[in-house]
Amino acid sequence: MRQGIFFALLFVTLVAPGLARAQSPAEKHKFEAGAVLTALDMRDATRSKPLGAGLRFAYNFHEYAAFDSELVHYPESPSGGYGETQGLFGVKAGRRFGKVPVGLFVKARPGFVKLGNDVTRYNPTFAETRFALDLGGVLELYPSGRAIARVDYGDTLIFFGDAPVNSGTRPARRLGTTHNKQVSFGFGFRF
Prior knowledge:
- The chain is built from 4 helices and 8 strands; from the N terminus they run ααβαββββαβββ.
- By secondary structure, it is of the alpha+beta class.
- Strands 1-2-3-4-5-6-7-8 form an 8-stranded antiparallel beta barrel.
- The longest helix has 18 residues.
C-alpha cells in the first residue's frame, strides 16, 4: 500500500509541472524509431553472452513518460549456439534537459525471451519462450532536433520457474529467476 502511494506521488510530481508548460520537444515529436545493438549476459543460465541487433519504437504520451519497446534478435553462432529473440514493451519515464541536449530516464519493460537451441537442444521439454522483465536506466543524447543517440543499462530478469535446465556439460539444475546484465546502444529519429 505504501509503495503504491509513493509511486503515485512520484508520478504526480513528475507530471504536474509539465501540464502547466508550453509544448515541449517531446510533445512536438511524439514518435521515435531507431536501431539498437545490445549484449545480454546470460552466462548464469545458458553460459552465453550473445550480441544482438534490433529495432526500437517509442511513443511519447507525455513530456516525462513514453511507451518504449524493442525487438532484438541474437544471431546463431557457427557452433549452433544462441539464436535468442527478445521483445520488450513497457514504460520509460524521466526528464529531458533543454539547455544541455540530454535526457535521463528509468525503464520498466516486461516482455519475453525466446530461447535459442543452445538451451532447448539439451532440454527438449523446456518451454522455449520465457517471461522477461527489463529494469534499468537510459541516457539519451540529442545531437539535433530529431536525432537521438541512446545508451541503456539494466537488469533483464528471466523467469525460468522450477523447470530443470541442463546445459550439456553441467548437471541439470533449477534456475528460478535469473538476473542478466544488458547494455544497449542505439540511434534513432523523432518524428
